[in-house]
């Protein structure tokens, strides 16, 4: 992208040092300035979000062309009596009373100097620098003059940067009133600044002294304030930590201060716009120019050669889209500077539209505030948050950073918090670590595991299930992306081993199957795997008998593929009592219509056509407002509007009483693939057993659900055998010894249906010829 400059914490005019931010594809924004980027330079004054089309151009400081004079500065003057007169040092007699004036704080230069912007009248808004009188705050760092080779950069004075930050957070974009008490011959103005529309507001100078961020200035007018409560400030109150290689939602600003991404105005919105627009998408990149490499200085790190380009997707220039939404501004150039975007005019037009419509940075509304709680590594906060995440089931998250193959940093939008997340059920190779006095090398394939996880989930929307937490406050659980379990995927790629704790999880079978397949391939972590020889033991063959343990069930739903859902008769009383209590509570405290925001996987209550509420689970949410739900106690599905859904009260959650609808399918039979033939079989089963009590026996387990035989409760006749006798289904041959007696009975019934030319067999044995064509096999 070119010419786009994202919003940043500090914006200076005419500052030197040419920098370029990096986009999601690793290319820096051409001639742009990335908001809150990682470039470390001496601290510059803070500035409010720009409301005009101008921005400082990065690059070596040059003498600008003389701007047109905007005319005299005018500020709003509130009504009311003027303040008491103040004597001007060096002048005799009485001066006129200081005039109270109003304006908007545009920039904070230091802990005792601000820029106030007035009301525009026929031109750009006038600006005025006001220095707080009677106090002194520490000076900020300064770069050495480019034309003085012997000059050196000066560092921050003690408490200079905290004082500037105090003023920035308190004043930027706020309306203040001020009086000018003294003006030097050079034109520098000193005065009093109050927060608000009149002098009854907070006195900013007094607040700085009370916070210990400024001291009283000794002199003629130094009699208004008490001394600082910190007479001997710490010379290094906020030491800069070492650069964190795993920032997550944190960025290094120009002042070498680690700041949250969401704390920089409109930076979070700009990042989210790019993430949702570009991550995982194919884009077109057009190189505009190449910026040569630069050497490192005391304040600026070295930069390698950077390619500045225009990035587009679907014919849309991403830089232009950012600027048009007010999430970036366009840099201005000299006429003789040709290192700019090929679409520079379009970018200027987009910025003009954004300014006219008051979009983003150009809006007169208050800057949106994102309150994000970072509970990474905070054991106490993590303990408090753990039960909530466990009850939430699957929660939506965005992967902010990948530390290793199984350790990630996640942002939970709904809960507005940052957490460190560890994948459960696996043991991933450890990466390299730098501990004091020792550099630990990474285990084999640790880098490959990290790269695989990054390519799969980095900055993508995922779903997480939190199970527990460790002693360090890291959450442990399962991460899913587009239906893929990341733990299982790592094991399938032979980049991880199954941990013994996986035995307690519902994903144990999938993990073990993936690990067995990886062992057979002998790849990566299993490259040196040798199967342990098993001692040959002559087994004593014992003929296993078929177990017939029928239990009473109530059939509630029949699906189109001849699966069915049943309720256990023994727990029927518990379900009736729960439903009665739940409906009583909902009747006493009816839900507010439209208050429930459904998400896939959430448990809720749904109003059925009979007007009653039932427990359900959200299966899918369509963009048009339709919600697909599954009734967990009955097995049927329905599509409803969100207004007929409500949150499930915790007292009736599946933890109190598990879902009562269990899915089964018939054993020993094959369902016809022809739609009409299958519909005939389903209609027959619906007529015979739906909403009736039957007897059920589990014969064997299948890939989706258990395979069972079903008997009528009164006659004890086999339902599946009846379908075979009527010629509605075919027999599934099985070779297990314990099933041979039942299979023989089923095959005899099938031969009788063939002879009678019933239903499927009305034209004879269709499987003899063209079996593949019709999808049947013997």
CA-CA gap between termini: 62 Å
Low-confidence stretches: 1-94, 219-248, 538-542, 770-778
The helix fraction, in percent, is 10-25%
- In percent terms, what proportion of residues is strand? 15-25%
Summing up helix and strand content along with how strands pair, one would put the structural category as alpha+beta
Overall geometry comes to elongated
What about the largest sheet?
5 strands, mixed, barrel
Could you give the count of β-strands?
39
Report mean pLDDT, rounded to a whole number. Answer: 78
What integer value in Å does the Rg equal? 36 Å
What strand line-up does the widest sheet have?
Answer: 3-4-5-8-7
Total of DSSP H or I helical runs spanning 4+ residues: 14
How would you describe the overall organization of this protein?
The chain is α+β, with helices and mostly antiparallel strands. 20% of the residues lie in helices and 24% in strands. It has 14 helices and 39 strands. The protein has a five-stranded mixed beta barrel with strand order 3-4-5-8-7. Strands 18-19-20-25-24 form a five-stranded mixed beta barrel. Strand 8 and strand 9 (202-203) form a beta hairpin. Residues 1-94, 219-248, 538-542 and 770-778 have low confidence and may be disordered.
State the gist of this model.
By secondary structure, this protein is α+β, with helices and mostly antiparallel strands. It is built from 14 helices and 39 strands.
Search tags:
single chain; 778 residues; 14 helices; 39 strands; five-stranded mixed β-barrel; five-stranded mixed beta barrel; alpha+beta
């Amino acid at each position: 992208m070119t010419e786009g400059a994202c919003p940043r914490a500090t914006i200076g005019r005419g500052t030197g040092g040419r920098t370029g931010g990096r986009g999601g594809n690793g290319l820096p924004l051409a001639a742009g300035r990335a908001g809150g980027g990682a470039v470390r330079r001496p601290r510059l004054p803070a500035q409010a979000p720009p409301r005009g089309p101008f921005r400082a151009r990065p690059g070596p400081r040059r003498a600008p062309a003389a701007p047109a004079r905007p005319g005299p500065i005018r500020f709003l003057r509130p009504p009311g009596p003027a303040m008491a007169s103040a004597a001007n040092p060096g002048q005799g007699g009485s001066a006129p009373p200081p005039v109270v004036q109003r304006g908007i704080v545009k920039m904070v230069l230091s802990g005792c100097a601000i820029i106030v912007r007035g009301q525009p009248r026929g031109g750009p808004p006038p600006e005025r620098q006001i220095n707080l009188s009677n106090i002194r705050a520490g000076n900020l760092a300064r770069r050495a003059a480019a034309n003085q080779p012997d000059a050196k950069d000066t560092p921050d004075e003690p408490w200079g940067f905290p004082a500037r930050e105090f003023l920035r957070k308190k004043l930027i974009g706020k309306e203040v009133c001020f009086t000018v008490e003294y003006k030097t011959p050079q034109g520098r103005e000193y005065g009093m600044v109050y927060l608000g529309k009149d002098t009854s507001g907070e006195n900013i100078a007094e607040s700085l002294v009370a916070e210990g961020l400024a001291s009283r200035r000794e002199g003629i007018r130094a009699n208004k304030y008490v001394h600082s409560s910190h007479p001997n400030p710490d010379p290094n109150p906020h030491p800069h930590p070492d650069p964190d290689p795993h920032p997550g939602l944190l960025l290094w600003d120009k002042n070498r201060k680690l700041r949250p991404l969401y704390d920089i105005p409109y930076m979070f919105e700009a990042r989210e716009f790019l993430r949702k627009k570009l991550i995982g998408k194919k884009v077109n990149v057009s190189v505009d120019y190449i910026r040569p490499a630069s050497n490192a200085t005391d304040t600026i790190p070295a930069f390698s050669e950077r390619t500045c380009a225009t990035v587009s997707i679907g014919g849309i220039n991403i830089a232009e889209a950012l600027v048009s939404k007010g999430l970036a501004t366009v840099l201005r150039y000299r006429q003789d500077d040709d290192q700019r975007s090929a679409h520079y005019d379009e970018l200027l037009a987009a910025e003009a539209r954004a300014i006219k419509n008051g979009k983003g940075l150009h809006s007169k509304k208050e800057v949106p505030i994102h309150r994000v709680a970072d509970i990474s590594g905070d054991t106490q906060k993590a303990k408090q948050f753990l039960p909530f995440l466990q009850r939430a089931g699957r929660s939506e998250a965005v992967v902010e950073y990948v530390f290793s193959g199984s350790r990630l940093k996640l942002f939970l939008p709904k809960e507005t918090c940052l957490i460190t997340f560890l994948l459960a059920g696996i043991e991933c190779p450890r990466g390299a670590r730098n501990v004091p006095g020792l550099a630990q090398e990474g285990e084999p394939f640790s880098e490959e595991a990290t790269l695989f996880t990054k390519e799969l989930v980095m900055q993508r929307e995922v779903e997480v299930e939190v199970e527990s937490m460790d002693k360090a406050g890291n959450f442990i659980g399962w991460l899913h992306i587009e239906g893929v379990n990341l733990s299982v995927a790592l094991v399938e790629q032979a980049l991880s081993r199954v941990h013994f704790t996986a035995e307690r999880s519902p994903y144990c079978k999938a993990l073990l199957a993936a690990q067995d397949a990886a062992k057979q391939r002998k790849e990566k972590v299993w490259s040196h795997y040798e199967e342990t020889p098993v001692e040959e033991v002559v087994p004593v063959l014992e003929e296993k008998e078929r177990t017939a343990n029928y239990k009473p069930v109530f059939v509630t739903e029949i699906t189109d593929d001849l699966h069915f859902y049943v309720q256990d008769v023994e727990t029927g009383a518990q379900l009736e009592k729960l439903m009665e209590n739940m409906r009583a509570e909902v009747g006493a405290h009816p839900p507010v219509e439209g208050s429930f925001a459904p998400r896939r996987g959430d448990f809720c209550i749904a109003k059925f056509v009979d007007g009653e509420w039932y427990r359900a689970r959200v299966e899918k949410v369509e963009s048009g407002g339709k919600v697909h739900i599954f009734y967990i106690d009955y097995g049927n599905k329905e599509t409803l509007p969100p207004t007929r859904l409500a949150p499930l009260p915790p007292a009736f959650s599946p933890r109190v009483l598990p879902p009562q609808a269990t899915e089964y399918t018939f054993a020993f039979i094959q369902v016809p693939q022809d739609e009409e033939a299958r519909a005939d079989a389903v209609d027959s089963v619906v007529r015979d057993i739906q909403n009736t009590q039957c007897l059920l026996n589990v014969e064997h387990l299948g890939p989706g659900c258990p395979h069972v035989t079903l008997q009528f409760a009164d006659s004890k006749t086999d339902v599946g055998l009846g379908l075979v006798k009527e010629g509605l289904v075919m027999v599934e041959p099985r070779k297990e010894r314990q099933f041979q007696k039942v299979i023989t009975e089923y095959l005899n019934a099938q031969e009788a249906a063939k002879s009678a030319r019933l239903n499927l067999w009305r034209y004879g044995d269709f499987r003899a010829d063209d079996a593949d064509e019709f999808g049947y096999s013997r």
